[in-house]
Amino acid sequence: MDISDRIRQKMTEHHLRAVDLTKMTGATKGSVSQWLNGISSPGGKYIIPLTKALQCDANWLFGGVSAQPHTSSHPQQDTSFNPCFISKQVPIISHEQAETWRDFTDKASLKDQLEWEYAPAAISHQAFWLKVIGDSMVSPVGHSISEAHIILVDPCMQAQNGDLVVAKVDATKEITFKKLIIDAGQTYLKPLNPNYRPIEVTDKCRVIGVVREARLKL
User: Which of 19, 38, 55, 186 is an S-S bond match for 4, by CB 3.0 to 4.6 Å?
Assistant: First the structure.
């Protein structure tokens, strides 16, 4: 179940329509439609009004994990209005920084130099946002991620077949964003745009992190 499934689940539980979400969150009809169809995820300014509308916490909404265990003797605290509890700020870094970000120890020194965006609290401390460059992940059907998006990358996650990943390809000296495909003993990075060729994963190609979320950067 992804975030679009969880949004629809809560809408069904609370008898909400798409038009209700536009009124309750202040988002456009187009944005809500993209949330429901899995094309994009709600941006930072929509987290609090959306969790309020759906009556859930952001950790569950974005990651499927509750903010804290729920027991009958210790009712779960309502944290929908506290962004410090339900989410945390993660930096938007450059493609050049992404290659070595996990090993960079003095991240605090860059606090005033970087732009920050809210992300689910369950994400690792090494996670970062990255601006999408190019149209290789723009698909004519299904999921499509354009330059209008930022992607949340977790370097601490083990990449698996079918994951969207960010990788370093030594042949081009560039950071690339693609879908990881492992099939019949071969591994390659597949663009969603059919106009681009897959990239074979060799010892000269290193996966930097797994993409957890794509979000329209308004």
Answer: 38
What is the residue type of 28? T
- Nearest residue to 129 (alpha-carbon basis) of 189, 206, 209, 58: 209
First-to-last C-alpha distance (Å) of the chain: 26
Determine the Cα–Cα distance for residues 207 and 95; give it in Å rounded to an integer.
13
Assess contact for 50 and 154: CB atoms under 8 A.
Answer: no
Query: Which segments of the chain does DSSP mark as H helices, in order?
Result: 3-13, 18-25, 29-36, 44-54, 58-63, 83-86, 95-98
Task: Please tell me the least confidently modeled range out of 76-80, 193-197, 210-214.
Answer: 76-80
Task: Tell me the C-alpha distance between 210 and 186, whole Å.
Answer: 19
CB 43 within 8 A of CB 34: no
Largest CA distance in the chain: 58
In tens, the pLDDT along 89-113 reads: 899 999 999 988 988 877 777 888 8
Distance CA 204, CA 153 (A): 21
The dihedral over CA atoms of 109, 115, 118, 121, expressed in degrees to the nearest 10, equals -20
CB 8 within 8 Å of CB 37: no
**What CA–CA distance (Å, rounded) separates 134 from 144?**
12
CA dist., res. 141 & res. 75, Å (int): 43
pLDDT digit string, tens, across residues 3-36: 888 899 999 999 999 999 999 999 899 889 988 9
Predicted TM-score (pTM) of the model is 0.65
